[in-house]
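Protocol step 4 of 6: record predicted structures for both targets in the notebook before any analysis. Target 1:
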Amino acid sequence: MEQQTKTAAGSEEVVLLRDWVVALILMAIPVVGFIMILVWSFSAGTNVNLRNFARASLIVVSIVLFLYVILFVLIGMAASSYTY
């Protein structure tokens, strides 16, 4: 049985399971993962499915970093107002 790599005539190729596994492993490496998310998000040659996944990951990372910054600012303000 042949593996189908097209969803419909003229549409984007399906991303294989091994490609998703490689993408997730690369994303788990701290600096390399962030660089690969940027490359996949803004590269025209990237598969549409992988590009959308990278963009969603970039949005989630941005939201989490924003929340961390707010949390550290609040903790810093609370710690600086506390005196003995």
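Target 2:
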Amino acid sequence: MFVSNSRLGCHTAFTGISTRISESVLLGVRVQMLTNEDFRFKAHHYLLDLEATNNHLMLLIVAGEVTGKIWDDAISRQKCSYAAWLEAVDANEVSDAPLS
């Protein structure tokens, strides 16, 4: 599945989120717990992507590649990654519940 950020025209590859909360046999508390688990899983994957894009930028800086197409592409990818993470965090509907 691809998650898109329409403001920046970004598409971030993302896989693995299940829709377990749609199962009708679950009770309200169990649904809340699964929703928290899904949010944590989703946020973790976005953070891994964001960390990878930040590391790539740092490698380019160390290599002195701070101009040109490679730099512009890396900056664009980092912005998309950060925007996708923010969008996922903002979409969390159980923000008042503890995540531990």
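Step 5 preliminary note on target 2. Helices lie at 28-62, 68-90. The chain is about 60% helix and 10% strand.
Proceed to step 6 after PI sign-off.
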